[in-house]
Write a structure and sequence with these properties.
- This protein is mainly α and about 220 residues long.
- It is built from 8 helices and no strands.
- The chain starts with a helix and ends with a helix.
- The relative contact order is 0.15.
- One of its GO terms (cellular component) is ATP-binding cassette (ABC) transporter complex.
- Keywords: Amino-acid transport, Cell membrane, Membrane, Transmembrane, Transmembrane helix, Transport.
Length: about 220
């Protein structure tokens, strides 16, 4: 009974916060995917400098806690430019996700048979053209399951933005629990919202994966 009361009391606030969480996740993952793709190319590059930059970036980001990175972006960049909690959260989550996405893309690209690149070059394609038209579409399809997992992790990681004044789901839950003194029930309802978002993300990712699989089979046919 108390769970339903909490749900009714927090519905408006949690719904608004859920939309904020979706926006935070979307923009951070969009930027993180771009960062990951760039550093994936750095990582597979024969240029020692670019390869070294990618290695340092991936090692540092994967080796330090996300909450430290969020605080470093929010409070560190405040010395140069003032960022609101949403913008700082997007940047921090994007930089964090980018390191993992870079490794996902790197592995997917390197899993493509090298003969395909050689065949494309023999047909007169430049390296960038062959990568864009031949290698990347296949690598993207292969990376979708791993990217899906990373996107879901990114959604849940967005809760840490609450600690720099964000207004997403977890921050709203902390405020609601402080007001109604029913921490367990409030956090449980909050968990249902996260679960609903994860299920929606999972459904969309499965749809994309099936759509691309059907498209690929029709091309082969």
């Amino acid at each position: 009974m108390e769970i339903m009361e909490i749900f009714q009391m927090t519905f408006a606030g949690f719904t608004k916060a859920a939309w904020q969480t979706v926006q935070l996740t979307f923009w951070s993952l969009l930027l993180g995917t771009a960062i990951g793709l760039v550093f994936a190319f750095f990582k597979i590059s024969r240029n020692a400098v670019l390869n070294g930059i990618a290695t340092v970036y991936i090692t540092v980001i994967r080796g330090t806690p996300l909450i430290v990175q969020i605080f470093a972006i929010y409070f560190g960049l405040a010395q140069l430019v003032v960022l609101d909690s949403f913008t700082a959260g997007v940047y921090a989550l994007a930089i964090h996700a980018g390191a993992y996405i870079a490794e996902i893309f790197r592995g997917a690209i390197q899993s493509i048979d090298k003969g395909q690149m050689e065949a494309a070059r023999s047909l007169g394609m430049t390296y960038p053209m062959a990568m864009r038209l031949i290698i990347l579409p296949q690598a993207f399809r292969r990376s979708i399951p791993s990217l899906g997992n990373q996107f879901i992790i990114g959604l849940k990681d967005s809760s840490l933005v609450a600690y720099i004044g964000g207004t997403e789901l977890w921050a709203t839950a902390l405020g609601a629990a402080a007001d109604n003194f029913k921490q367990f029930e409030t956090y449980l309802v909050n968990g249902f919202y996260y679960l609903a978002l994860v299920l929606i993300f999972t459904f969309l990712l499965q749809w994309v994966e099936k759509h691309l699989d059907v498209e690929q089979r029709s091309v082969r046919a």
